[in-house]
Amino acid sequence: MSKKIYEIVDNLPTGGLTVRALKTLDLFLPHTWENLVGFDQTIKAVTGETDEAMVQAIGERAIALFNDKHEGYQTALWLYETIDASSGLLGTAALANRLGQDTFLGFLKNLTPKPEKAQTIDLVVKLVAEVVAFCKISGIPGDSLGDFLAALGAYKDESLVRMAALVCFDGLIPLGADFSTRALTMIGAMAPSELDSNPTFKGIKAELPGNSNADKLAFITQSFASTKGWMDGFIADRHITQGSLIDGLGGFIEGSKTKLDYLGAFLDVSVKYYHHTGVQTLARRLIERAVAEI
Amino acid sequence: MPPFGWLKRLLPVVLGLTLLVNGCSSAPSRYDQVQKDTTGFGSSAAVARKAEKGGTFNQFFPAEEGSYKVIPYQEKKGFAEYKLQRGDQTLAMLTITDTISLPSAAAKYADATQKIGGYPTVEQGTTATGLLVNGRYQVKVLSRDPSFTQQDRTTWLQKFDLKGLARLKVAIAKTKAARVLAPTPQASTPAVPATPLPATS
Question: pLDDT, tens digit, for every residue of A89-142?
Fold first, then answer.
């Protein structure tokens, strides 16, 4: 059965670990992200429209656009869902269950930190997923990195927070301050065949440009190299350090300060920020197109 | 007791529970009908195959002007959108769409009583002003900040290259409505902008 975009947006959580983890980024990006939940509320917030008949007309057109498979919105949603689902080590349900029974440290014993290489592949593949999803939603041809970079500078709201979370939760925390340089070196030395053993890559492989793993690795490397400057600048301009980030997260994840490897793994399984903010971006863009077209 | 007799007794309970659970899984929504109409076998595409490429519209958008930035935002088949910004503040969205995918969008201009640049114009909801070129291409300015008024929307609508858009061959050759709603350059334009337009290149 087809997914209902209005129900997906209506069912986004207003609290929980994902929302709390994203809120910690407020420290570095004040007033950037409002956790916009609910389809009609999103229409009203995005367009400023208050006329109920207009809200419904916008909603109906947005739904029709989403349901047209050729328009790419469903693929983008699939990418955001898959990237989160495949990068986690455990299911969210299992995690919630454990958190109910144990202390955080008790829970940590059941998690194994990922090897650095796996963590690096996760980071670069997530970045590439953002490139592809952006193009599916906003319609810039699939390998136009220049346009993406221009748009990255203009990223706002939930899109900016998603990139911030990528840099912080998947880069800085597990890999350290020089994460971008280390990641680039590592993927530069990687054989295309190594990608297939990574669940995150396997999850979205079909949607990445290129016919072979070698092509896909080249696209991944090019994407990461092109956005490295933006990521480094983002951290430097906002004075984000591993320490300040962990202080922020320590507010609700007890005992995390001394277990960095595990903190990365914990964030990986419990924080589904790609899906959460991805749905918000998708809804925003659909609504913006719908109000223009009706 | 016959084999599976227990199952027979249990079945109504299971069926009842299944119906209850499914019934509760999603509350009725005002969007259920459109969901039904736009999914499944036989549902028509949201975007017409013959819709103009979004990239074709780029050349008709207003240029940057003083402290106003005009930033590319979205470009899909039959649709192009730019963001109008001053500093970091988004003031409005500027859009051109091909109504071939959604004839009702063009139909609303049939009752238009005002014109801008000779093209029929309407106010839509509380934040949008649109006009229709050659009965097919809809140009809209949508306020995103309360300081950006209807007057501002009218002013920015005039900064589009509307004449250029009207020269798109496909618009004139293939659109029946073009003959009905063709622009009349001498027509009165009651929605003239309050501020004089700067010279355009």
Answer: 433 434 444 444 445 555 555 555 567 788 888 889 888 888 889 888 987 643
Question: Is B80 a domain residue?
Answer: yes
Tokens of A100: 């109910």
Nearest chain B alpha carbon to A5: B35
Joined together, the tokens standing for residue A207 give 């949607």
In this prediction the pTM is: 0.82
User: Does A149 contact B at CB distance below 8 Å?
Assistant: no
- Separation CA B50–CA A258 (nearest Å): 60
Mention every residue, 6+ apart, whose C-beta is less than 8 A from residue A159.
Answer: A277, A281
Tokens of A208: 């990445």
Of A7, A71, A292, the CB nearest to B140: A292
Of A77-81, A172-176, A287-291, B142-146, the one with minimum mean pLDDT is: A172-176
| CA-to-CA separations, B75 to A25, A54, A286, B58, in angstroms, rounded | 30, 23, 12, 9
- Cα A263 to the chain's mean position, in Å? 18
C-alpha closest to that of A246 among A236, A259, A230: A259
Which 3 state secondary structure label does DSSP give B143?
strand
Q: Which residues of B touch A137 (CB under 8 A)?
A: 74
For residue A50 the two structure tokens come to 């208050």
Distance CA A290, CA A285 (A): 8
Contact residues on chain B for A150, CB-CB shorter than 8 A: 72
| Within-domain flag for B140 | yes
Position B95 in a domain: yes
Nearest-by-CA chain B residue for A51: B125
Determine, for residues B105 and A48 on separate chains, whether the beta-carbon distance falls below 8 Å.
Answer: no
| Measured distance CA(A268)–CA(A279) in Å, rounded | 18
A293 and chain B: CB distance < 8 Å anywhere?
yes
B101: contact with A, CB 8 A cutoff: yes
Query: Which of A137-141, A151-155, B78-82, B167-171 is most confident?
Result: B78-82
Residues of B in contact with A2 (CB under 8 A): 35, 39-40
Number of domains present in the structure of chain B: 1
Residue pointed to by tokens 């995690």: A95
Can you tell me the distance from the alpha carbon of A271 to that of A19, in angstroms, rounded to the nearest whole number? 8
Query: In sequence order, which ranges of chain B are alpha helices (DSSP H)?
Result: 5-25, 32-37, 103-107, 150-157, 162-166, 169-174, 176-181
* B74 within some domain: yes
Domain that holds residue B58: 54-181
Dihedral sign, Cα of residue B151, residue B153, residue B159, residue B160: negative
**What backbone torsions phi and psi does residue A197 show, to the nearest 5 degrees?**
-85, 0
